[in-house]
Structures are given as C-alpha cells and as structure tokens.
Amino acid sequence: SQDTYERLLARLQGRGVRAVVDATRDLLVNVLPYHPFLIKPNNHELSRLTGRTLETADGLLAAAREMIAGGVERVVVSMGGDGALFVSKDAAYRAEGLKVPVGSTVGAGDSMVAALAFAAEQGMSEEDTVRLAVATSAANVMCSGSQAAERSAVDELLPRVVFHKL
Q1: Per the residue annotation, which of 22, 26, 90, 110 is the catalytic one?
Q2: N or C: which end of the chain has fewer CB within 10 A?
Q3: Percent of the chain scored above 90 by pLDDT?
C-alpha cells in the first residue's frame, strides 16, 4: 500500500523512535511530515522529490538542506560510483566512491542504510558513520547477487574511505 510507511510513522510519532526511511516517490514524500530521523534518497530520487533536476553536488547539497529545514534530521544522498553526501543540521560531508571490483550493485543502498542505522544506534561520530556507510556499501558491491558482505570485508575498506567536510 502506498500509505504503509506513512501509517507506520504516524503510529510511532512521539514514542522516541528514530525512523530511517529509504523509499521512493510518494512513499518518501508521505513520511516527511513525520520528520524521520534519516532519509536516504539517491540523486535521482532527490531530484524527483524536489521537482528539480539536480545534476551537481552543490544542487544535491542544497536540496538535502531543504529536507533538513523541513524537519528531517539527516539526509544521505547516494550517488552510485560518485560517492555520497551526508548532511545533518550541523555538518555536511562528501564521500568519494570507492573503486572496487563489481560483483553486483543489488543491495548496495540497503547495506548503506543498515550501516547508517547501526552507526546511529551505536552513537558513532559523523565521520565514523561516513566511513562505515561507504565501506559497507562498497563491500556489498563486491559480492555477487544479493549476498551481504562479511564484516571483515567492510573493515578492510574502512581506511580507504575518503571524504571531505563541506
């Protein structure tokens, strides 16, 4: 149902739950009034969400900041091989994409979301969150099919993650 996430967030509102939403189109638009903790659109989804063609990192960053001004606490914009933007009220980072052998891109975004949720639950710093999310996604790309990467693969990639504060 197109209102599943909206109904779920409505029921959770005011209960101290930090919702992490990785959805497209109306599924994402409909939860924004409930101020999710984190959303993770890709660059194309953020363009559709804002109704503007966002072709540059600066444009994506401005759109992510609009989402934060609207009540979302954190926005992570995945940009495939071009990396990701990590934006909060207090800081913004641009992480470069890791060059790894591609087994499959299936689940790369989902693994990034899992890493973001884990990092939030563990109270990790924004910098460590960026490292973990990028390394986890890249490690997943190295796997075939929808197989999840082993933590050891993620740990090996952590030192290779390059990012800059914006």
Answers
A1: 110
A2: N
A3: 69
